[in-house]
Design a protein that fits this description.
alpha+beta, 3 helices, globular
């Protein structure tokens, strides 16, 4: 189970970030009721599951995927999985 940290000081271009089993959200806990933030949390929960499957090797694999797809964020397989699942309930 992931621990969610709200109001985390992230750059404006990053709404959420996952480190291990911790999800860092750049918005208030009150905003967690908004559909867009719920999607963001589901997206980050996919990254937590990926981390749990790969362990700390996840970050190395993520970097290798990013390089392999020419630094195109939306083409990273881990991200494609997360975007595909963020709309599931």
């Amino acid at each position: 189970m992931a621990k969610i940290h709200y109001n985390f000081p992230l750059p404006k271009c990053i709404g959420g970030l996952t480190i291990g089993r911790h999800i860092l959200i750049g918005y208030s806990k009150k905003s967690a009721r908004l559909p867009s933030i719920k999607r963001l949390i589901r997206h980050e929960e996919v990254h937590v599951a990926q981390f749990e499957e790969c362990g700390w090797n996840y970050y190395w694999l993520y970097l290798k995927q990013w390089i392999a797809c020419g630094f195109k964020y939306r083409e990273i397989p881990f991200e494609q999985e997360a975007y595909a699942k963020e709309h599931e309930q």
